[in-house]
Design a protein that fits this description.
heterotrimer; A alpha+beta (496); B mainly alpha (266); C mainly alpha (264); B: mainly alpha; MetI-like fold; C: 264 residues; mainly alpha; 2 domains
Chain lengths: 496, 266, 264
């Protein structure tokens, strides 16, 4: 188990963590380059932050890429992954931090002088040029002689499977063919690093699968470094040597696909990569965790006694059988859908938890079942927070300004008005309202996690603070809500 | 039935719309002093016009030359100024600045010609510049350029924003990328803008009248105006009108073809 | 900052045109206001506006022009709306070139069109005068009414109409409840493009009425052309300009106007 990715907090993984982690990365690069020196990174992204106006899109991102690696930057839309790629390509300057290539600082080198090429999301082929001239564009700029250009264009066209397409008008090509031209146009320049910005996003499912295999093959043949941006977790798992999971401008986790899948560092990663059941639990002692009213054996250690934790169970790791007395938990099948290879079932446990389970055997809806979870299939994570600690200002003895609004609190005597304070609010003490004016402050639902018997929402308030809310009501991502907190629930008011 | 009625309405309306022009063209093919007096088909008027036999022939020829020269210069400058401006406006990130410039760009299109003409007249008077070729050309640039901006703009907005970056990425300097990628993309809009400006300039009457000064510069429009004011139209002008009408018609059909092809491509 | 740096930032490319706009569009309009509040000797005065309000000729012409403009505009809507509707209805008309035919006259010199009207009246042995003036104005401005209305109807998503039918609306109700309300912006643009230019036309009225009836534009022109009444002419122009500003502000939307350029 890699310790670095079991890092306790979701704070961006620093370069140091990554260096520690580096030996885990498969040595594909070293094999191709013929160098066995694992310490040489082709790209070093060093503490990069990027602001657009007053909006921060990248928050202290560090990433080290080895020569020949296939690195995928994965995250939901708006997580900053494309901005990161554009900084690498030279189209955007970082607000803070630097980019190095082969040890040289290239942060301010303009894009046309960087030995990297980009495959753009919507291909960005030049509509006034035919396939041949699109591909030859870079070489012509370098004043390479005609014969050589001709030879190379034919070679890359063959490589992407478009022999005899030289004279075609690029707009007459299908999406997949345009994509191949875009790749050919980039690799003909023999870049040291190929940047790919969601290159398959516009293709249909079948075409996407085919292209994934071809890309992987191409990476092997060319031996150059690929940095690939996508929001498709399955694509990332299929293609990459290393996956970088990003959310809200921060790196959440860096690791091999299997590590990211099996050992997610936080609920976001667990939820984003593959299907999962995420539940609240209590770490009773080392290797003993209590959740769903049952004490399970697990393999995790190093937690405080009785520490509150998040527990991740992959749906294929829960063993389901007809009701018997050997099960650790009992429940009733709620739905059962055939998914091609396996069946996907939801089961309500006798204590009211909803579990997603995948199994090769089907159980009828309404059937009583028992379930077993093996110790090494239980993945325990530290909680990011145990309650909401919110920063605010005491307006007068009974009012606090926080979350971009004004809240009533129980009378405070020992702190003078106008002081900066911190308060604690339990997750379950926050009520969300349909209308913003019904709450003390307004916010926007930015992340939803189903915890088996309730939802854990992340609500971003108007002043940019994130608060966690437990609720049984169903909200959608992006809903604008009012935040209501009763005076008695604003606890532990303290000066800072 | 409904379709028949609808179509009939359209054709009757078109008939009325085109009747006056048709009559002018018709009577350009007969040698008579007034319209309505058909004296049999003849090309005499055209012959007179082209051979310089008509009354004031020299003035008419000069007016035609003036009109074309002014239109060519104004259209060329408008095309350059407007295209460069469109690229600039497109790249302005500040919404308010962008809106303000677009608003100013719309002014000459919203203002009636007479206001544009008078305002420029006052400008040249205040600056002590006497009217002539230069003032007329400047005035024409003022009301033509907004149309160039408008015909180049959609090319820029519908352009894949990444293609400029793709060129940089493939090793082009900013200048090379602009020449090899942006220019070919907006060229059709520039050409349409040029033809549009040329047409507008040939067509203009009010603005020219106010800015041409009193040194005897005449364009076709102002000449026709002066001629009509004197009572009756010199018969040969019917031929000119017919020729201008056909020229404008052809130019507009070309622009329309271009823009509908562009729309289809999108 | 070097010149090449300035050129590289492409938003700066707008600079020459902004300079041009300021010098040849904005400044001249301001000059109209400056001249309007001055006497020929260059001193500040309100006399020009007093003259407009008290002297019957300009005022009467102004009122007469507004009346003629209202009649012209109404006729244009009455004749133009059905034409625009038919042109935009895919069941009644599929030909784009028919649309082009209706718009083409927009691009022919006003003077030429007026002379053509005179020719038509001569040909039909009809007398020139007020009737010819209104005919000529409608003939001149009808395309400017048809085009924006056509544009607004054409932009209506066909699924709205299908949805209205699906929800039980009859053909008539579809028109009154869906198409008409959605085409109102087009009508407003049309009014903008017909009403204002009609008031300010000159030359047309003189040609079509043998100099008997004059519109406001002619008065402005007459005064502008003589240096001793130039300030009065500027004042009349300013009044015109204010009307334009108010109408554009009220109608609020100039998008159709700007699209007129991109069509052709």
């Amino acid at each position: 188990m890699a310790d670095s990715i079991m890092d306790l907090t979701p704070k961006p993984i620093s370069g140091k963590d990554c260096t520690q982690h580096a030996p885990d990365i498969p040595g594909a690069a070293a094999d191709i380059s013929g160098e066995k020196d694992d310490k040489t990174y082709i790209i070093e992204i060093d503490h990069i932050s990027k602001w657009f106006g007053d909006k921060q899109v990248l928050d202290d991102v560090s990433l080290f890429v080895k020569k020949g690696e296939f690195v995928t930057i994965l995250g939901p839309s708006g997580c900053g992954k494309t901005t990161l790629l554009r900084i690498l390509a030279g189209f955007n300057l970082p607000t803070e931090g630097s980019v190095r290539m082969n040890g040289t600082d290239i942060t301010e080198i303009p894009p046309h002088q960087r030995p990297m090429n980009t495959v753009f999301q919507r291909y960005a082929l030049f509509p006034h040029l035919n396939v041949y001239d699109n591909i030859a564009f870079g070489l012509k700029l370098k004043k390479v002689d005609e014969d050589s250009i001709d030879k190379q264009v034919r070679r890359v066209l063959k490589m992407v499977g478009l022999t005899d397409y030289e004279e075609r008008d690029v707009e007459s090509l299908s999406g997949g063919q345009q994509q191949r031209v875009a790749i050919a146009r980039a690799i003909i320049n023999k870049p040291q690093v190929l940047l790919l910005d969601e290159p398959l996003a516009a293709l249909d499912l079948k075409m996407r699968k085919d292209m994934q295999l071809e890309l992987k093959q191409m990476h092997k043949e060319l031996g150059i470094t690929f940095i690939y941006v996508t929001h498709d977790q399955e694509e990332a798992l299929t293609l990459s040597d290393t996956i970088v999971v990003m959310n809200k401008g921060k790196v959440q986790q860096i690791g091999k696909p299997t590590d990211i899948y099996n050992e997610p560092v936080n609920p976001f990663v667990a939820d984003f990569i593959g299907d999962s059941n995420i539940l609240n639990g209590i770490m009773v002692e080392d290797r003993k965790v209590l959740f769903m009213y049952h004490e399970f054996e697990c393999v995790d250690e190093g937690f405080q006694p009785n520490e509150h934790v998040d527990v991740v169970l992959r749906p294929e790791d829960i063993y389901i059988m007809a009701r018997n007395d050997k099960g650790q938990i009992n429940g009733t099948v709620q739905t059962c859908i055939f998914k091609g290879v396996h069946y996907e079932m939801t089961v309500i446990t006798d204590h009211g938890y909803e579990l997603l389970i995948q199994d090769y055997n089907a159980f009828e809806v309404g059937q009583e079942v028992s379930m077993i979870i093996k110790p090494f299939d239980i993945h325990v994570m530290h909680k990011e927070r145990f309650n909401n600690s919110i920063h605010g200002t005491l307006k007068d003895s009974a009012h606090i300004e926080m979350l971009g609004g004004l809240f009533e609190c129980e009378p405070v005597e020992d702190i003078e008005s106008g002081s900066d304070i911190m308060v604690d609010v339990e997750f379950e003490d926050i009520e969300l309202m349909d209308y913003t004016e019904d709450g003390g402050a307004a916010g926007c639902v930015s992340f939803i996690l189903y915890k088996g018997n309730h939802y854990q929402l992340t609500v971003t308030s108007d002043n940019g603070d994130d608060i966690y809310v437990y609720t049984n009501e169903v909200w959608d991502d992006g809903d604008i809500v009012g935040i209501r907190i009763l005076p008695k629930d604003i606890r532990n008011i303290r000066r800072i | 039935m409904k379709k028949f009625l609808a179509k009939s309405y359209l054709y009757i309306l078109l008939l009325v719309l085109y009747a006056p022009i048709a009559i002018i063209i018709l009577f350009s093919f007969t040698n008579s002093k007034t319209i309505g007096d058909w004296r049999g088909f003849s090309l005499d008027l055209y012959a007179n016009l082209l051979s310089g036999q008509a009354a004031h022939s020299a003035t008419i020829t000069q007016a035609v030359i003036n009109t074309l020269v002014i239109a060519l210069i104004a259209a060329a400058i408008s095309m350059l100024l407007g295209s460069i401006a469109a690229v600039g406006i497109f790249n302005i990130r500040n919404r308010k600045v962008r809106k303000a410039i677009q608003f100013a760009n719309n002014i000459p299109m919203i203002n009636p010609d007479i206001i544009t003409g008078i305002s420029l007249f006052l400008l040249f008077v205040s600056l002590g510049i006497s009217g002539g070729y230069v003032t007329v050309v400047l005035a024409h640039i003022a009301f033509c350029t907004p149309y160039v901006v408008l015909s180049v703009m959609p090319r820029l907005t519908r352009m894949n924003p990444n293609i400029y970056e793709a060129a940089l990425d493939l090793g082009a300097t900013p200048l090379q990328a602009f020449n090899k990628v942006i220019i070919p993309e907006i060229k059709p809009g520039m050409v349409s803008g040029f033809i549009l400006s040329f047409t507008l300039s040939i067509d203009d009457f009010a603005v020219t009248l106010f800015t041409k000064g009193s040194n005897g510069l005449e364009t076709l429009s102002t000449y026709i105006y002066a001629d009509a004011r004197k009572g009756g139209l010199t018969p040969e002008l019917r031929c000119l009108a017919a020729i201008i009408f056909l020229t404008v018609l052809i130019l507009l059909i070309i622009i329309n073809r271009r823009s509908s092809r562009f729309n289809k491509e999108q | 900052m070097s010149l090449s740096k300035l050129v590289q930032k492409r938003s700066n490319w707008v600079a020459p045109y902004v300079l041009f706009l300021v010098l040849f569009v904005v400044l001249p309009l301001l000059l109209i206001a400056v001249y309007a509040f001055r006497n020929p000797a260059g001193q500040f005065t309100l006399q020009n506006f007093v003259k407009f309000a008290t002297q019957s000729e300009a005022m009467n012409t102004f009122i007469y022009s507004v009346g003629i403009a209202i009649i012209t505009t109404l006729l244009c809507i009455l004749l133009g709306y059905p034409a625009a509707y038919i042109l935009a209805d895919s069941k009644l008309n599929r030909s784009k070139s028919l649309v082009l035919l209706f718009i083409l006259p927009m691009w022919i010199n006003v003077l030429m069109r007026s002379l053509a009207t005179v020719a038509l009246f001569d040909f039909l042995h009809l007398p020139l005068g007020e009737g010819a003036l209104i005919f000529g104005l409608v003939y001149d401005f009808l395309p400017f009414m048809i085009y924006p209305i056509y544009n607004s109807i054409q932009k209506i998503d066909k699924s709205y109409i299908e949805a209205a039918h699906d929800l039980g609306a009859t053909t008539r109700q579809v028109f009154t409840r869906v198409i008409w309300p959605l085409s109102v912006p087009g009508i407003i643009s049309g009014i903008m493009m017909v009403f204002l230019p009609t008031i300010s036309t000159f030359a047309i009225s003189e040609i079509l009425t043998l100099n008997n009836k004059r519109l406001f534009g002619s008065i402005i022109q007459d005064n502008m052309m003589m240096s001793d009444t130039m300030n009065y002419g500027a004042a009349l122009s300013l009044i015109m300009l204010i009307i334009i500003a108010i109408t554009s502000a009220v109608s609020g939307d100039d998008s159709d106007l700007s699209e007129g350029g991109s069509l052709l």
